[in-house]
Protein backbone atom coordinates (compact mmCIF):
# COMPACT_ATOMS: atom_id res chain seq x y z
CA UNK A 1 0.00 0.00 0.00
CA UNK A 2 2.84 2.40 -0.78
CA UNK A 3 0.55 4.62 -2.80
CA UNK A 4 -1.60 5.31 0.25
CA UNK A 5 1.47 6.48 2.18
CA UNK A 6 2.34 9.18 -0.31
CA UNK A 7 -1.11 10.72 -0.38
CA UNK A 8 -2.10 11.09 3.24
CA UNK A 9 -4.30 14.03 4.07
CA UNK A 10 -3.81 16.44 6.92
CA UNK A 11 -6.50 17.49 9.36
CA UNK A 12 -6.62 20.97 7.83
CA UNK A 13 -7.38 19.42 4.42
CA UNK A 14 -10.14 17.11 5.58
CA UNK A 15 -13.56 18.02 4.30
CA UNK A 16 -16.57 18.17 6.57
CA UNK A 17 -19.73 16.34 5.54
CA UNK A 18 -21.27 19.33 3.78
CA UNK A 19 -18.09 20.11 1.82
CA UNK A 20 -17.64 16.46 0.91
CA UNK A 21 -21.23 16.37 -0.33
CA UNK A 22 -20.62 19.38 -2.56
CA UNK A 23 -17.48 17.76 -3.98
CA UNK A 24 -19.34 14.52 -4.72
CA UNK A 25 -22.27 16.32 -6.39
CA UNK A 26 -19.95 18.43 -8.52
CA UNK A 27 -17.92 15.38 -9.50
CA UNK A 28 -21.06 13.52 -10.50
CA UNK A 29 -21.98 16.53 -12.62
CA UNK A 30 -18.61 16.43 -14.36
CA UNK A 31 -18.90 12.73 -15.21
CA UNK A 32 -22.46 13.16 -16.46
CA UNK A 33 -21.31 12.99 -20.12
CA UNK A 34 -19.98 9.50 -19.33
CA UNK A 35 -22.90 8.37 -17.18
CA UNK A 36 -23.74 5.34 -19.32
CA UNK A 37 -20.18 4.11 -19.21
CA UNK A 38 -20.15 4.73 -15.46
CA UNK A 39 -23.43 2.82 -15.05
CA UNK A 40 -22.00 -0.09 -17.05
CA UNK A 41 -18.89 -0.03 -14.84
CA UNK A 42 -21.02 -0.25 -11.68
CA UNK A 43 -23.09 -3.09 -13.12
CA UNK A 44 -19.99 -5.02 -14.16
CA UNK A 45 -18.42 -4.35 -10.74
CA UNK A 46 -21.46 -5.81 -8.96
CA UNK A 47 -21.54 -8.82 -11.27
CA UNK A 48 -17.78 -9.41 -10.96
CA UNK A 49 -17.83 -9.17 -7.16
CA UNK A 50 -20.77 -11.55 -6.98
CA UNK A 51 -19.03 -14.04 -9.29
CA UNK A 52 -15.87 -13.94 -7.17
CA UNK A 53 -17.87 -14.94 -4.09
CA UNK A 54 -19.60 -18.01 -5.58
CA UNK A 55 -16.78 -20.46 -4.82
CA UNK A 56 -17.65 -21.36 -1.20
CA UNK A 57 -21.36 -21.65 -2.10
CA UNK A 58 -20.50 -24.10 -4.90
CA UNK A 59 -18.37 -26.10 -2.45
CA UNK A 60 -21.25 -26.16 0.05
CA UNK A 61 -23.60 -27.67 -2.50
CA UNK A 62 -21.01 -30.20 -3.58
CA UNK A 63 -20.21 -31.33 -0.01
CA UNK A 64 -23.85 -31.63 0.99
CA UNK A 65 -24.74 -33.60 -2.15
CA UNK A 66 -21.76 -35.89 -1.81
CA UNK A 67 -18.41 -35.23 -3.43
CA UNK A 68 -18.01 -38.94 -4.05
CA UNK A 69 -20.73 -38.81 -6.67
CA UNK A 70 -19.13 -38.41 -10.15
CA UNK A 71 -21.84 -36.13 -11.36
CA UNK A 72 -21.61 -33.86 -8.33
CA UNK A 73 -17.82 -33.62 -8.55
CA UNK A 74 -17.87 -32.84 -12.27
CA UNK A 75 -20.58 -30.27 -11.77
CA UNK A 76 -18.58 -28.59 -9.00
CA UNK A 77 -15.44 -28.46 -11.14
CA UNK A 78 -17.31 -26.99 -14.08
CA UNK A 79 -19.07 -24.47 -11.83
CA UNK A 80 -15.73 -23.38 -10.34
CA UNK A 81 -14.22 -22.97 -13.80
CA UNK A 82 -17.26 -21.03 -14.99
CA UNK A 83 -17.13 -18.71 -11.99
CA UNK A 84 -13.40 -18.17 -12.50
CA UNK A 85 -13.87 -17.39 -16.19
CA UNK A 86 -16.73 -15.00 -15.43
CA UNK A 87 -14.66 -13.28 -12.74
CA UNK A 88 -11.76 -12.94 -15.19
CA UNK A 89 -13.84 -11.40 -17.96
CA UNK A 90 -15.84 -9.16 -15.65
CA UNK A 91 -12.72 -7.94 -13.84
CA UNK A 92 -11.11 -7.03 -17.13
CA UNK A 93 -14.23 -5.18 -18.28
CA UNK A 94 -14.48 -3.43 -14.91
CA UNK A 95 -10.89 -2.15 -15.07
CA UNK A 96 -11.38 -0.90 -18.62
CA UNK A 97 -14.68 0.85 -17.89
CA UNK A 98 -13.60 2.43 -14.61
CA UNK A 99 -10.31 3.53 -16.17
CA UNK A 100 -12.08 5.02 -19.18
CA UNK A 101 -14.44 7.10 -17.07
CA UNK A 102 -11.73 8.12 -14.59
CA UNK A 103 -9.13 9.12 -17.16
CA UNK A 104 -11.65 11.12 -19.18
CA UNK A 105 -12.71 12.89 -15.99
CA UNK A 106 -9.07 13.73 -15.21
CA UNK A 107 -8.52 14.95 -18.76
CA UNK A 108 -11.53 17.26 -18.51
CA UNK A 109 -10.37 18.48 -15.10
CA UNK A 110 -6.85 19.27 -16.35
CA UNK A 111 -8.24 21.14 -19.33
CA UNK A 112 -10.62 23.18 -17.16
CA UNK A 113 -7.93 24.09 -14.63
CA UNK A 114 -5.34 25.06 -17.25
CA UNK A 115 -7.89 27.05 -19.27
CA UNK A 116 -8.97 28.82 -16.10
CA UNK A 117 -5.37 29.70 -15.20
CA UNK A 118 -4.81 31.21 -18.64
CA UNK A 119 -7.81 33.49 -18.05
CA UNK A 120 -6.53 34.80 -14.75
CA UNK A 121 -4.90 38.26 -14.62
CA UNK A 122 -1.28 38.88 -13.62
CA UNK A 123 -2.29 39.95 -10.10
CA UNK A 124 -3.63 36.45 -9.44
CA UNK A 125 -0.16 34.98 -9.96
CA UNK A 126 1.35 37.55 -7.61
CA UNK A 127 -0.91 36.27 -4.83
CA UNK A 128 -0.57 32.57 -5.67
CA UNK A 129 2.95 31.15 -5.90
CA UNK A 130 3.73 29.21 -9.06
CA UNK A 131 4.72 26.16 -7.03
CA UNK A 132 1.28 26.01 -5.41
CA UNK A 133 -0.50 26.30 -8.75
CA UNK A 134 1.72 23.67 -10.33
CA UNK A 135 1.00 21.36 -7.38
CA UNK A 136 -2.70 21.66 -8.18
CA UNK A 137 -1.94 20.19 -11.62
CA UNK A 138 0.57 17.61 -10.37
CA UNK A 139 0.32 16.34 -6.80
CA UNK A 140 -3.43 16.91 -6.55
CA UNK A 141 -4.05 15.26 -9.91
CA UNK A 142 -1.67 12.44 -8.87
CA UNK A 143 -3.80 11.83 -5.79
CA UNK A 144 -6.83 11.54 -8.05
CA UNK A 145 -4.89 9.36 -10.48
CA UNK A 146 -4.24 6.84 -7.73
CA UNK A 147 -7.91 6.83 -6.83
CA UNK A 148 -8.94 6.34 -10.46
CA UNK A 149 -6.41 3.64 -11.28
CA UNK A 150 -6.37 1.71 -8.01
CA UNK A 151 -8.49 3.04 -5.23
CA UNK A 152 -11.96 3.75 -6.58
CA UNK A 153 -12.72 0.28 -7.90
CA UNK A 154 -11.15 -1.34 -4.83
CA UNK A 155 -13.06 0.96 -2.49
CA UNK A 156 -16.42 0.12 -4.07
CA UNK A 157 -15.53 -3.54 -4.47
CA UNK A 158 -14.48 -3.94 -0.85
CA UNK A 159 -17.59 -2.17 0.42
CA UNK A 160 -19.72 -4.35 -1.84
CA UNK A 161 -17.83 -7.48 -0.76
CA UNK A 162 -18.41 -6.72 2.93
CA UNK A 163 -22.09 -6.11 2.29
CA UNK A 164 -22.53 -9.30 0.29
CA UNK A 165 -20.55 -11.33 2.82
CA UNK A 166 -22.73 -10.05 5.65
CA UNK A 167 -25.83 -11.11 3.74
CA UNK A 168 -24.42 -14.51 2.76
CA UNK A 169 -23.15 -15.32 6.26
CA UNK A 170 -26.54 -14.45 7.72
CA UNK A 171 -28.33 -16.59 5.13
CA UNK A 172 -26.02 -19.55 5.82
CA UNK A 173 -26.41 -19.37 9.61
CA UNK A 174 -27.61 -16.43 11.60
CA UNK A 175 -26.46 -18.11 14.80
CA UNK A 176 -22.86 -18.42 13.60
CA UNK A 177 -23.07 -14.82 12.36
CA UNK A 178 -23.91 -13.74 15.89
CA UNK A 179 -20.92 -15.71 17.17
CA UNK A 180 -18.65 -13.71 14.84
CA UNK A 181 -19.95 -10.44 16.29
CA UNK A 182 -18.20 -11.25 19.56
CA UNK A 183 -14.95 -10.01 17.99
CA UNK A 184 -16.52 -7.03 16.20
CA UNK A 185 -15.70 -4.53 19.00
CA UNK A 186 -12.00 -5.50 18.89
CA UNK A 187 -11.84 -5.06 15.10
CA UNK A 188 -13.74 -1.77 15.26
CA UNK A 189 -11.46 -0.39 18.01
CA UNK A 190 -8.29 -1.43 16.16
CA UNK A 191 -9.54 0.02 12.87
CA UNK A 192 -10.56 3.38 14.34
CA UNK A 193 -7.23 3.63 16.16
CA UNK A 194 -5.37 2.73 12.99
CA UNK A 195 -7.18 5.38 10.94
CA UNK A 196 -6.37 8.06 13.46
CA UNK A 197 -2.71 7.15 13.92
CA UNK A 198 -2.02 6.24 10.29
CA UNK A 199 -3.34 9.60 9.10
CA UNK A 200 -0.72 11.41 11.14
CA UNK A 201 2.02 8.91 10.29
CA UNK A 202 1.37 8.96 6.56
CA UNK A 203 1.16 12.75 6.57
CA UNK A 204 4.61 12.87 8.17
CA UNK A 205 5.91 10.50 5.48
CA UNK A 206 4.46 12.70 2.73
CA UNK A 207 5.89 15.89 4.21
CA UNK A 208 9.35 14.42 4.78
CA UNK A 209 9.33 12.86 1.30
CA UNK A 210 8.50 16.24 -0.24
CA UNK A 211 11.23 17.94 1.83
CA UNK A 212 13.79 15.32 0.82
CA UNK A 213 12.88 15.54 -2.86
CA UNK A 214 13.04 19.34 -2.68
CA UNK A 215 16.49 19.19 -1.07
CA UNK A 216 17.63 16.70 -3.70
CA UNK A 217 16.34 18.87 -6.56
CA UNK A 218 17.90 22.00 -5.08
CA UNK A 219 21.19 20.19 -4.56
CA UNK A 220 21.33 18.94 -8.15
CA UNK A 221 20.22 22.29 -9.59
CA UNK A 222 22.79 24.23 -7.57
CA UNK A 223 25.61 21.71 -7.82
CA UNK A 224 27.86 24.13 -9.70
CA UNK A 225 27.56 26.79 -6.97
CA UNK A 226 28.09 24.13 -4.32
CA UNK A 227 31.27 22.93 -6.01
CA UNK A 228 32.47 26.46 -6.74
CA UNK A 229 32.41 27.37 -3.04
CA UNK A 230 33.46 23.96 -1.76
CA UNK A 231 30.26 23.43 0.24
CA UNK A 232 29.63 19.82 -0.76
CA UNK A 233 29.99 18.47 2.78
CA UNK A 234 27.55 21.05 4.10
CA UNK A 235 24.94 20.24 1.47
CA UNK A 236 25.44 16.53 2.06
CA UNK A 237 24.99 16.95 5.82
CA UNK A 238 21.72 18.82 5.29
CA UNK A 239 20.48 16.13 2.90
CA UNK A 240 21.44 13.31 5.27
CA UNK A 241 19.62 15.04 8.11
CA UNK A 242 16.43 15.23 6.02
CA UNK A 243 16.89 11.64 4.89
CA UNK A 244 17.12 10.49 8.52
CA UNK A 245 13.87 12.30 9.29
CA UNK A 246 12.25 10.51 6.35
CA UNK A 247 13.55 7.20 7.71
CA UNK A 248 12.04 7.89 11.14
CA UNK A 249 8.71 8.84 9.56
CA UNK A 250 8.63 5.63 7.52
CA UNK A 251 9.56 3.53 10.53
CA UNK A 252 6.72 5.14 12.49
CA UNK A 253 4.30 4.34 9.66
CA UNK A 254 5.51 0.73 9.59
CA UNK A 255 5.09 0.51 13.38
CA UNK A 256 1.47 1.64 13.03
CA UNK A 257 0.86 -1.11 10.49
CA UNK A 258 2.67 -3.62 12.70
CA UNK A 259 0.25 -2.87 15.53
CA UNK A 260 -2.86 -3.09 13.36
CA UNK A 261 -2.34 -6.03 11.01
CA UNK A 262 -1.66 -8.64 13.73
CA UNK A 263 -4.91 -7.61 15.46
CA UNK A 264 -6.82 -8.37 12.27
CA UNK A 265 -5.01 -11.68 11.86
CA UNK A 266 -5.77 -12.59 15.48
CA UNK A 267 -9.41 -11.59 15.07
CA UNK A 268 -9.66 -13.70 11.93
CA UNK A 269 -8.11 -16.73 13.58
CA UNK A 270 -10.17 -16.29 16.76
CA UNK A 271 -13.40 -15.90 14.79
CA UNK A 272 -12.60 -19.00 12.78
CA UNK A 273 -11.91 -20.94 15.96
CA UNK A 274 -15.19 -19.85 17.50
CA UNK A 275 -17.12 -20.73 14.35
CA UNK A 276 -15.43 -24.14 14.12
CA UNK A 277 -16.31 -24.86 17.74
CA UNK A 278 -19.90 -23.65 17.58
CA UNK A 279 -20.44 -24.95 14.06
CA UNK A 280 -19.00 -28.37 14.92
CA UNK A 281 -21.50 -28.72 17.74
CA UNK A 282 -24.32 -27.66 15.40
CA UNK A 283 -23.20 -30.18 12.75
CA UNK A 284 -22.97 -32.91 15.36
CA UNK A 285 -26.48 -32.05 16.53
CA UNK A 286 -27.86 -32.14 13.01
CA UNK A 287 -28.70 -28.45 13.12
CA UNK A 288 -26.21 -27.52 10.38
CA UNK A 289 -24.83 -29.36 7.38
CA UNK A 290 -21.10 -29.93 6.92
CA UNK A 291 -21.18 -28.12 3.58
CA UNK A 292 -22.84 -25.09 5.11
CA UNK A 293 -20.26 -24.86 7.89
CA UNK A 294 -17.42 -25.25 5.37
CA UNK A 295 -18.83 -22.46 3.22
CA UNK A 296 -19.35 -20.28 6.30
CA UNK A 297 -15.70 -20.67 7.36
CA UNK A 298 -14.43 -19.88 3.86
CA UNK A 299 -16.62 -16.79 3.61
CA UNK A 300 -15.53 -15.72 7.09
CA UNK A 301 -11.85 -15.91 6.06
CA UNK A 302 -12.66 -13.44 3.28
CA UNK A 303 -14.15 -10.83 5.62
CA UNK A 304 -10.98 -9.42 7.14
CA UNK A 305 -9.09 -8.62 3.94
CA UNK A 306 -11.72 -6.04 2.80
CA UNK A 307 -11.63 -4.50 6.30
CA UNK A 308 -7.85 -4.12 6.03
CA UNK A 309 -8.08 -2.76 2.48
CA UNK A 310 -10.71 -0.20 3.47
CA UNK A 311 -8.52 1.04 6.30
CA UNK A 312 -5.82 1.96 3.78
CA UNK A 313 -8.21 3.19 1.13
CA UNK A 314 -9.75 5.62 3.61
CA UNK A 315 -6.66 7.85 3.45
CA UNK A 316 -6.56 7.75 -0.33
CA UNK A 317 -10.24 8.68 -0.52
CA UNK A 318 -9.67 11.55 1.92
CA UNK A 319 -6.65 12.80 -0.03
CA UNK A 320 -8.58 12.63 -3.30
CA UNK A 321 -11.56 14.47 -1.85
CA UNK A 322 -9.25 17.17 -0.48
CA UNK A 323 -7.48 17.43 -3.84
CA UNK A 324 -10.79 17.78 -5.65
CA UNK A 325 -11.88 20.42 -3.16
CA UNK A 326 -8.73 22.45 -3.87
CA UNK A 327 -9.13 22.12 -7.62
CA UNK A 328 -12.79 23.12 -7.49
CA UNK A 329 -11.85 26.05 -5.28
CA UNK A 330 -9.35 27.16 -7.91
CA UNK A 331 -11.96 26.85 -10.65
CA UNK A 332 -14.39 28.92 -8.55
CA UNK A 333 -11.89 31.77 -8.24
CA UNK A 334 -13.30 34.46 -10.49
CA UNK A 335 -10.84 36.74 -12.28
CA UNK A 336 -10.95 40.30 -11.00
CA UNK A 337 -10.85 41.55 -14.56
CA UNK A 338 -14.11 41.41 -16.47
CA UNK A 339 -12.84 41.33 -20.00
CA UNK A 340 -14.88 42.17 -23.03
CA UNK A 341 -17.35 39.92 -24.76
CA UNK A 342 -14.71 37.57 -26.15
CA UNK A 343 -14.11 36.33 -22.60
CA UNK A 344 -17.77 36.09 -21.65
CA UNK A 345 -18.62 33.25 -24.01
CA UNK A 346 -21.21 35.28 -25.92
CA UNK A 347 -21.67 35.37 -29.67
CA UNK A 348 -21.02 39.12 -29.74
CA UNK A 349 -17.84 40.38 -31.34
CA UNK A 350 -15.20 41.82 -28.97
CA UNK A 351 -14.80 45.55 -28.89
CA UNK A 352 -12.04 46.70 -31.25
CA UNK A 353 -9.56 49.42 -30.41
CA UNK A 354 -8.79 52.04 -33.05
CA UNK A 355 -5.14 52.40 -34.12
CA UNK A 356 -3.03 55.31 -32.95
CA UNK A 357 -5.00 56.29 -29.87
CA UNK A 358 -3.81 58.19 -26.82
CA UNK A 359 -2.74 56.16 -23.79
CA UNK A 360 -3.89 57.80 -20.58
CA UNK A 361 -3.62 57.07 -16.86
CA UNK A 362 -5.98 59.08 -14.69
CA UNK A 363 -5.39 59.15 -10.90
CA UNK A 364 -4.20 55.55 -10.94
CA UNK A 365 -3.48 53.77 -7.65
CA UNK A 366 -2.17 50.24 -7.23
CA UNK A 367 -0.77 48.08 -4.46
CA UNK A 368 0.33 44.46 -4.26
CA UNK A 369 -1.49 42.13 -1.84
CA UNK A 370 0.13 42.16 1.57
CA UNK A 371 2.23 45.26 0.85
CA UNK A 372 2.43 47.87 3.59
CA UNK A 373 1.82 50.74 1.19
CA UNK A 374 0.60 51.14 -2.40
CA UNK A 375 3.27 51.09 -5.10
CA UNK A 376 1.52 53.86 -7.05
CA UNK A 377 -0.92 56.42 -5.71
CA UNK A 378 -2.73 59.06 -7.77
CA UNK A 379 -0.59 58.77 -10.91
CA UNK A 380 -1.85 60.69 -13.94
CA UNK A 381 -0.07 60.52 -17.28
CA UNK A 382 -0.91 61.20 -20.91
CA UNK A 383 1.11 59.58 -23.70
CA UNK A 384 0.08 60.89 -27.14
CA UNK A 385 0.35 58.67 -30.21
CA UNK A 386 3.88 58.22 -31.51
CA UNK A 387 5.65 59.48 -28.38
CA UNK A 388 8.62 57.72 -26.85
CA UNK A 389 8.45 57.99 -23.06
CA UNK A 390 11.24 56.78 -20.77
CA UNK A 391 10.51 55.75 -17.18
CA UNK A 392 13.44 56.20 -14.81
CA UNK A 393 13.86 56.04 -11.08
CA UNK A 394 15.30 53.98 -8.24
CA UNK A 395 14.79 50.25 -7.90
CA UNK A 396 11.35 49.45 -6.49
CA UNK A 397 9.90 52.84 -7.35
CA UNK A 398 7.12 51.26 -9.46
CA UNK A 399 8.41 51.68 -13.04
CA UNK A 400 7.58 48.11 -14.09
CA UNK A 401 4.24 48.26 -12.29
CA UNK A 402 3.35 51.46 -14.11
CA UNK A 403 4.22 49.85 -17.45
CA UNK A 404 2.15 46.75 -16.65
CA UNK A 405 -0.83 48.90 -15.71
CA UNK A 406 -0.46 50.83 -18.97
CA UNK A 407 -0.29 47.51 -20.84
CA UNK A 408 -3.46 46.24 -19.16
CA UNK A 409 -1.74 43.36 -17.38
CA UNK A 410 -2.92 44.73 -14.03
CA UNK A 411 -6.14 46.50 -13.18
CA UNK A 412 -5.69 49.62 -11.05
CA UNK A 413 -7.10 49.66 -7.54
CA UNK A 414 -8.24 53.21 -8.21
CA UNK A 415 -8.47 55.45 -11.25
CA UNK A 416 -8.59 54.36 -14.88
CA UNK A 417 -6.27 53.38 -17.71
CA UNK A 418 -7.63 54.14 -21.17
CA UNK A 419 -6.47 53.75 -24.74
CA UNK A 420 -8.22 55.73 -27.46
CA UNK A 421 -10.82 56.59 -24.83
CA UNK A 422 -11.64 52.94 -23.99
CA UNK A 423 -11.16 51.65 -20.45
CA UNK A 424 -8.76 48.70 -20.69
CA UNK A 425 -10.91 46.75 -18.24
CA UNK A 426 -13.76 46.78 -20.75
CA UNK A 427 -11.69 45.69 -23.74
CA UNK A 428 -11.29 42.07 -24.79
CA UNK A 429 -7.92 40.49 -24.20
CA UNK A 430 -7.46 39.74 -27.90
CA UNK A 431 -8.24 43.29 -29.02
CA UNK A 432 -5.93 44.76 -26.37
CA UNK A 433 -2.99 42.57 -27.35
CA UNK A 434 -3.33 43.59 -30.99
CA UNK A 435 -2.71 47.20 -29.96
CA UNK A 436 -0.49 47.02 -26.85
CA UNK A 437 2.47 44.67 -26.32
CA UNK A 438 4.90 44.48 -23.42
CA UNK A 439 8.40 43.10 -24.00
CA UNK A 440 9.79 42.00 -20.62
CA UNK A 441 13.46 42.18 -19.71
CA UNK A 442 13.71 38.41 -19.86
CA UNK A 443 11.31 36.96 -22.41
CA UNK A 444 10.23 33.41 -21.57
CA UNK A 445 10.99 30.83 -24.26
CA UNK A 446 9.06 27.61 -24.67
CA UNK A 447 10.42 24.23 -25.70
CA UNK A 448 10.65 24.17 -29.49
CA UNK A 449 12.35 26.07 -32.30
CA UNK A 450 13.19 29.74 -32.66
CA UNK A 451 10.53 29.98 -35.36
CA UNK A 452 7.85 28.48 -33.11
CA UNK A 453 8.78 30.79 -30.24
CA UNK A 454 8.55 33.91 -32.38
CA UNK A 455 5.34 32.71 -33.97
CA UNK A 456 3.91 32.31 -30.46
CA UNK A 457 3.04 36.03 -30.62
CA UNK A 458 0.96 35.48 -33.77
CA UNK A 459 0.33 31.78 -34.46
CA UNK A 460 -0.96 32.36 -37.98
CA UNK A 461 2.19 34.12 -39.18
CA UNK A 462 4.08 32.60 -42.10
CA UNK A 463 7.78 31.79 -42.00
CA UNK A 464 8.51 34.70 -44.31
CA UNK A 465 6.76 37.06 -41.89
CA UNK A 466 8.84 35.68 -39.03
CA UNK A 467 12.02 36.22 -41.04
CA UNK A 468 10.89 39.75 -41.81
CA UNK A 469 10.44 40.40 -38.09
CA UNK A 470 13.95 39.10 -37.44
CA UNK A 471 15.29 41.30 -40.20
CA UNK A 472 13.51 44.34 -38.77
CA UNK A 473 15.35 44.04 -35.46
CA UNK A 474 18.66 43.24 -37.11
CA UNK A 475 18.74 39.59 -36.01
CA UNK A 476 18.87 37.93 -39.44
CA UNK A 477 21.73 35.48 -39.49
CA UNK A 478 22.17 35.37 -35.70
CA UNK A 479 20.54 31.93 -35.48
CA UNK A 480 18.71 29.37 -37.58
CA UNK A 481 14.94 29.87 -37.18
CA UNK A 482 14.55 26.09 -37.16
CA UNK A 483 17.09 25.56 -34.36
CA UNK A 484 15.87 24.21 -31.03
CA UNK A 485 15.97 26.67 -28.12
CA UNK A 486 16.04 24.04 -25.35
CA UNK A 487 14.23 24.24 -22.02
CA UNK A 488 13.54 27.92 -21.21
CA UNK A 489 15.93 28.85 -24.04
CA UNK A 490 18.94 27.13 -22.49
CA UNK A 491 20.57 26.57 -25.91
CA UNK A 492 20.57 30.32 -26.67
CA UNK A 493 22.59 33.10 -25.12
CA UNK A 494 20.91 35.79 -23.02
CA UNK A 495 21.18 38.21 -25.93
CA UNK A 496 19.68 35.74 -28.38
CA UNK A 497 16.76 35.08 -26.04
CA UNK A 498 16.11 38.82 -25.90
CA UNK A 499 16.25 39.04 -29.69
CA UNK A 500 13.53 36.40 -29.89
CA UNK A 501 11.40 38.49 -27.51
CA UNK A 502 11.95 41.58 -29.69
CA UNK A 503 11.07 39.60 -32.81
CA UNK A 504 7.76 38.66 -31.20
CA UNK A 505 6.94 42.34 -30.73
CA UNK A 506 7.91 43.08 -34.32
CA UNK A 507 5.69 40.25 -35.55
CA UNK A 508 2.63 41.52 -33.66
CA UNK A 509 3.03 44.98 -35.23
CA UNK A 510 1.27 46.66 -32.29
CA UNK A 511 0.64 50.39 -31.94
CA UNK A 512 2.02 50.63 -28.40
CA UNK A 513 5.22 48.97 -27.22
CA UNK A 514 6.20 48.62 -23.55
CA UNK A 515 9.93 47.84 -23.35
CA UNK A 516 11.51 46.83 -20.06
CA UNK A 517 14.95 47.92 -21.30
CA UNK A 518 14.74 45.37 -24.07
CA UNK A 519 18.47 45.61 -24.92
CA UNK A 520 19.74 45.20 -21.36
CA UNK A 521 20.72 41.55 -21.88
CA UNK A 522 22.66 42.00 -25.10
CA UNK A 523 26.32 42.79 -25.43
CA UNK A 524 27.46 46.30 -26.48
CA UNK A 525 28.25 45.13 -30.01
CA UNK A 526 24.83 43.59 -30.44
CA UNK A 527 23.19 46.63 -28.88
CA UNK A 528 24.81 48.97 -31.37
CA UNK A 529 23.72 46.76 -34.28
CA UNK A 530 20.07 46.61 -33.22
CA UNK A 531 19.70 50.23 -32.13
CA UNK A 532 18.92 51.31 -35.69
CA UNK A 533 16.57 48.34 -36.08
CA UNK A 534 14.85 49.28 -32.82
CA UNK A 535 14.35 52.79 -34.18
CA UNK A 536 12.65 51.30 -37.24
CA UNK A 537 10.59 49.01 -35.01
CA UNK A 538 9.36 51.88 -32.83
CA UNK A 539 8.91 54.39 -35.66
CA UNK A 540 5.35 55.70 -35.72
CA UNK A 541 4.46 53.82 -32.56
CA UNK A 542 3.87 54.85 -28.99
CA UNK A 543 6.74 53.54 -26.87
CA UNK A 544 7.09 53.39 -23.10
CA UNK A 545 10.52 52.14 -22.10
CA UNK A 546 11.80 51.34 -18.62
CA UNK A 547 15.26 52.78 -18.98
CA UNK A 548 18.39 51.56 -17.25
CA UNK A 549 20.89 53.02 -19.73
CA UNK A 550 21.74 56.61 -20.50
CA UNK A 551 21.63 56.02 -24.26
CA UNK A 552 18.02 54.85 -24.00
CA UNK A 553 16.97 57.88 -21.98
CA UNK A 554 18.59 60.43 -24.26
CA UNK A 555 16.78 59.04 -27.30
CA UNK A 556 13.34 59.50 -25.66
CA UNK A 557 10.92 62.34 -26.37
CA UNK A 558 10.00 62.75 -22.71
CA UNK A 559 11.23 61.33 -19.42
CA UNK A 560 9.17 60.49 -16.32
CA UNK A 561 10.94 60.10 -13.00
CA UNK A 562 8.96 57.56 -10.94
CA UNK A 563 9.52 57.87 -7.19
CA UNK A 564 7.61 57.61 -3.90
CA UNK A 565 4.49 56.18 -5.53
CA UNK A 566 4.11 58.87 -8.15
CA UNK A 567 5.77 60.80 -10.97
CA UNK A 568 8.24 63.19 -9.37
CA UNK A 569 9.31 64.87 -12.62
CA UNK A 570 8.14 64.86 -16.22
CA UNK A 571 9.64 66.57 -19.24
CA UNK A 572 12.23 66.44 -21.98
CA UNK A 573 15.87 65.70 -21.27
CA UNK A 574 16.90 69.32 -21.62
CA UNK A 575 14.02 70.58 -19.46
CA UNK A 576 14.81 68.19 -16.63
CA UNK A 577 18.54 68.91 -16.76
CA UNK A 578 17.79 72.64 -16.54
CA UNK A 579 15.61 72.12 -13.46
CA UNK A 580 18.49 70.49 -11.65
CA UNK A 581 16.21 68.09 -9.77
CA UNK A 582 16.11 64.33 -9.36
CA UNK A 583 16.65 63.52 -13.01
CA UNK A 584 19.65 65.83 -13.21
CA UNK A 585 21.26 64.04 -10.26
CA UNK A 586 20.49 60.65 -11.78
CA UNK A 587 21.88 61.75 -15.14
CA UNK A 588 25.07 62.98 -13.49
CA UNK A 589 25.53 59.59 -11.81
CA UNK A 590 25.06 57.88 -15.19
CA UNK A 591 27.66 60.16 -16.75
CA UNK A 592 30.18 59.22 -14.08
CA UNK A 593 29.43 55.51 -14.57
CA UNK A 594 29.83 55.86 -18.32
Automatic annotation (TrEMBL):
One Gene Ontology term, aspect cellular component: plasma membrane
Source species: Planobispora takensis
Subcellular location: Cell membrane
PROSITE patterns: ABC_TM1F (PS50929), ABC_TRANSPORTER_1 (PS00211), ABC_TRANSPORTER_2 (PS50893)
Coiled-coil residue windows: none
Membrane topology field: Multi-pass membrane protein
Name of this chain's protein: ABC transporter ATP-binding protein
Spans through the membrane: 36-59, 71-90, 174-192, 263-282
Annotated keywords: ATP-binding, Cell inner membrane, Cell membrane, Membrane, Nucleotide-binding, Transmembrane, Transmembrane helix, Transport
Taxonomic lineage of the native organism: Bacteria, Bacillati, Actinomycetota, Actinomycetes, Streptosporangiales
Domain ABC transmembrane type-1: 39-319
A Pfam family this chain is assigned to: ABC_membrane
Annotated ABC transporter domain residues: 359-589
GO MF term set: ABC-type oligopeptide transporter activity; ATP binding; ATP hydrolysis activity
Superkingdom classification of source: Bacteria
